[in-house]
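FAQ: What does the model actually see?

It sees only this:
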Amino acid sequence: MFSPRRFKRKKYKFADDQMAVDTIISLIFAVLSILVTVGCIIYSAIKGGKISDRVGVLMLMASIMALTGLGFGLHSFRVVEGDNNAKRMTVILSLIAIVLLVILYLI
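And it is asked to produce this:
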C-alpha cells in the first residue's frame, strides 16, 4: 500500500562530496567577518565617528569569526578531499579579514 520510496526525504547539500566541510565553514566565517567589518566602517562614516558600543561588539565578533575561519581553513589542509585552491582561498580571505581588523585597530 505505502511504498517507502515514496516518502523518502530529500537531502540538501551546499557543495559536492569533493568539498571539505572545514573549507565551507571557513569560507562562511571569512566572508561574514569581512562583511561585518566593512558594514561597521560604513556605519561609522555615516555617523561621523559617533557610534555606540554595539559597533565595538560587532568588531569583536568579526575578529572571532576571522580567527575561527582561519583555524578551520588551516585544518582543512589535513583533510584529503577537496580542492586545494578553495582551501587556499579561504585562508587568504581569513587573513584579509584579520589584516583589515588589525589596520583598523592601529588607526
